[in-house]
Amino acid sequence: MKVQSKVSSKSRLRGQLKEFRQDPLHFLMSNSELQGDVAHFRFGPQKVYLLTNPATVKQIMLNKEYAFAKSKNFRQLEPFVGKGLLTSEGELHRKQRQLIQPLFRADEVQRYGEEMVSLTDTYCRSFKDGETRLITRDMMNITLAVISKTMFSMELFETHETVGKPIDLALEIVTKRIRSLLKIPLSIPTKDNKQFNHSVQTLDRVIYHMINSRRNIASNDLLSVLMKATNEDGTMSDQQLRDECMTIFLAGHETTANALSWSFYLLAKHPLKRKKMLEELETVLGNRLPCSKDVELLPYTTNVIREALRLYPPAWLFGRDVTKAATLDALTLRKGDRLLISPYVMHRNAEYFTSPHLFKPERFEEGFLKKIPSYTYIPFGGGARVCIGNHFAMMEAVLLIATISQKFTFDLLEEQSSIEPYPLITLRPRNGLLMRVKDRTKK
Question: Which residues are listed for heme binding in this entry (predicted)?
């Protein structure tokens, strides 16, 4: 599909939204290749810029953040996650982030390592040599169990029917709404709206049950911190509690699960890279399970995750609306313009990443990230809205892939030798990832 860099008069009303909706990743890559660091097009009447220069992105996310707000379209997530950290702005976002941030400091997340490993090891005991499994679902189940246990002290393994399906459906419908010029009010009983509302109600029951079952129970997890929090109006309302829990519930497992799924896909496609990772695990761990202190002793395993995040960043696109007239280098922006920042596109820039389409965990060796400009590699975003759980997610991903790979490897089925990325709110393998299990402990 050839993407035009100019908007014809016939398409001025809808701009290039149709082309974007047909294949978002191709559309963004093509426009970036055609137009360079500043690509422009229209979505309906709105002027949109795709900006891929790291220095410009740094200005948007850090130096001139005051002139930009999260895209209005992104607010289509609010009926799903409410006004939690992901969607809130201004003073509410600052207060809530200040409250939650201490639980996700690099030194603080170390205490969750044992539970991460134990939950993963328990889950994988059901794997059988030679069976075919939907690995994407397994990763979602494991990471949801991890976030439920570590942040909310809840045991939650039976996840797909009660939690996985409604999350998937809600994300599908939210994505449609974000990419549509006409947003039908959710109160109108269309098929999509009824499915969306039912999914949110299902998830609400899980979240509110979690909140209500924890009242008057002492703990030091995230839910307890939120429930004890006070402000000028008293304790946090149940609605705000629900919104923050839903946000952590979603963001705390969805992105890591996708990163792990892509990692297993890439390792299956590159057996020599997988062999190198397994040798590192055997050298460092032997037959014992990993712990949080082992993460720094597993540089190649860590680089496998980093490279998977480079090629398939779960947060593949950020949107910002211009709220005040601003200048970025030679670009003059007007209030109402929209900016797009795509880690997926930026991570494929050959100026900074040699052979950018190849899977090369070795590229992150020898202090690579310190040698490239800041905001060149941004799998967790940046600035004041950098992912609050980035340290938690990286440690979790390394520990989970190490725990699983000690006993099992996954091979692609012949019909799934090439997997297409599916860009919803996060970037996941389209139609899931069916893989054949190999039990490494069997001789």
Answer: 387
Task: Look at the block and give the residue holding tokens 């269309």.
Answer: 190
Residue 85 lies in a domain: no
224, part of any domain: no
Host domain of residue 426 = 16-79+108-155+251-439
Q: What angle do CA 415, 308, 105 make, to 5 degrees?
A: 140
Q: What pLDDT, on the 0 to 100 scale, is given for residue 15? A: 80
CB contact set of 208 (below 8 Å; sequence gap of 6+): 238, 242
> Are the C-beta atoms of residues 242 and 236 closer than 8 Å to each other?
no
Residue of 246, 226, 320 whose CA lies nearest to 79: 246
Say how many Å lie between the first and final Cα of the chain, rounded: 49
Q: What is the pTM of this model?
A: 0.91
- Please report, for the domain that includes residue 357, its CATH number: 1.10.630.10
Backbone angles phi, psi at 233, to 5 degrees: -95, 5
Does residue 207 lie in a domain region? Answer: no
**Residue 216 reports pLDDT greater than 90:** no
The answer to whether residue 90 sits within a structural domain is no
For 218-261, how does the pLDDT look when each residue is reduced to its tens digit (9 = 90+)? 777 888 888 877 555 556 788 888 888 888 878 888 899 999 99
> 124 among the known binding-site residues?
no
Judged by DSSP in three states, 71 sits in coil
Three-state DSSP state, 345: helix
